[in-house]
Design the sequence.
């Protein structure tokens, strides 16, 4: 077990005031966070109340199956420890988890070449929602949160489908797909459409569906449908544009 450590408020302020140097040191030290103490002048972290036993699986050749395994492992880890979105979607929790457990994973997946991107995802410089869906930990958890379905024999059935269909990942950026019924219906509709047509959704198709769902949500139509009605409706819409 390893104790999760958070960055202090003063350390976060210091990092944000020295972004270029912070990212340069990340690039020079892709396998270790020992540089943090020298950079800040002392330990920039404090112990949290959480301890975990967790290691990321190797991220090989940009494999989506590896990310699927990591996403499920993360989700189940947080579930076992009674942690939900209110705790996880937090700047200190996500940055702390990355630097405690996932620093090498972060560097392999994202790197530190684009300073603005590092600080937008690690330290929420551009807001919470944008950070959550791009943060390497937050997005893995969100993929599962949006697709897990306890009513199915395999509750991760939709999750696996999403990971194997990159275009469908674009659904996570749509604020009007955040409702529980709408979320599951959208992913189920895509999965059933794929099975029936033997095709994979394209980015263009997903964008059209997102826009259509937004229109329905704006006029409260989605509130009037149960999940299966919405699945059938969206599937028919997909067929009309496919």
Sequence:
């Amino acid at each position: 077990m390893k104790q999760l450590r958070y960055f202090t408020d003063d350390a976060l302020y210091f990092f944000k005031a020295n972004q270029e140097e912070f990212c340069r040191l990340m690039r020079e030290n892709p396998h270790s966070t020992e540089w943090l103490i020298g950079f800040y002048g002392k330990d920039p972290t404090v112990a949290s109340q959480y301890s975990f036993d967790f290691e990321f699986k190797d991220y090989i050749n940009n494999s989506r199956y590896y990310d699927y395994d990591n996403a499920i492992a993360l989700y189940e880890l947080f579930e076992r420890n009674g942690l939900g979105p209110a705790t996880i979607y937090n700047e200190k929790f996500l940055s702390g988890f990355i630097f405690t457990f996932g620093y090498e994973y972060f560097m392999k997946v994202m790197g530190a070449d684009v300073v603005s991107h590092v600080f937008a995802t690690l330290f929420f410089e551009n807001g919470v929602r944008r950070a959550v869906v791009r943060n390497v930990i937050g997005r893995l958890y969100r993929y599962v949160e949006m697709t897990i379905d306890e009513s199915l024999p395999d509750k991760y059935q939709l999750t696996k489908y999403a990971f194997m269909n990159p275009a469908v990942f674009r659904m996570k950026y749509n604020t009007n797909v955040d409702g529980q019924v709408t979320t599951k219906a959208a992913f189920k509709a895509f999965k059933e459409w794929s099975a029936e047509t033997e095709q994979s959704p394209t980015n263009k198709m997903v964008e059209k569906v997102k826009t259509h769902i937004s229109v329905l949500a704006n006029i409260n139509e989605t509130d009037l449908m149960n999940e299966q009605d919405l699945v059938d409706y969206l599937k028919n819409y997909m067929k009309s544009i496919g």
